[in-house]
Amino acid sequence: MHMDSKKINSTFFKSSLMACLLLLCSVWGNSVYALSDKTDFVSNNEVSIENSYADQAFRTEIFRVTGPVRLDVSTTGGHIDVIKGSSSEVQVRLIVRQGYSFWGGSNFRPEDYKIIIEQDGNAITAVVERLRQSSRGGNQPSFSFEISVPAETSTDLRTSGGHITIKGIEGNQQVRTSGGHLTFSDMAGVVNARTSGGHINISNFSGKLESLTSGGHITLENIRGEVEVRTSGGNIRADRLEGSFSASTSGGNISCSVINQISGLSLRTSGGNIRASVPANIDYNLNLRGSSVNVVNMNNFSGTTERNRVIGKIGDGGHAIDLSTSGGSVMLTLAN
Prior knowledge:
Strand content: over 45%
Number of helices: 1
Number of domains: 2
Distance between the termini: 101 Å
């Protein structure tokens, strides 16, 4: 009887183990959903989402356009990438990434989302909208867009938490993300961009730029035009500027270099240091304040110089240079 009991226990253990393995396979198989290649269209160009066994799937739409394009994109949790492509078409690529909870199964309920990708003349709309909050715990799916557009394109881009990248276009750009980074390059026109916590990186831009981050760093390179940037806590670095430049940070450092004609320079920080370099062959009005102030290569100056401030003009005066920090030092270099 003792041996029979061991056999019974062994059989019961093997049966239980097999049941657990089957349960795990079922949970794993149901934990990943994505857009199927067999997408069905419903009213108002909405998309019904079918299940598949891939953790990432793609849907691509191509729209023919003539002339300047207007692009409106909004998504929940994902990234937005817009790049210069063909002059006669807009290609919209939707990417769905689905996380999973090991024990809880998938959180992707198609009825919780509405996806619209549509064209109205030269206006393109790509929207992912969450209709209701999923009642299941764990990770939620993210919806990202990769879009190629003609060079002459204006955009309105919004995401609740992803990064936004724009490259190679000109027009009027309105950009918002709740927490991601912003990266712009090879652009011209007007840009108004905001992120609640990410970094901002902009290179090779000409036009009017206003950019704000609540906590990230700002890096600019080869910028020409009218520029205003602000961060609540990060550093600001700007190289090879032309035009007017205004920058402020609540606690970081600011450094910038101006390589050509400048129509105004205003740098302010509550606690960091300021380093600026401007051409020496231009007359300026100077207003510099900090715990210590130093001007390198200053000639033909008239005004007041003290340890913590310099106020006056170089030559006959002209373009305003206003550098101010509450707790750091200021260094201005007049570069030959």
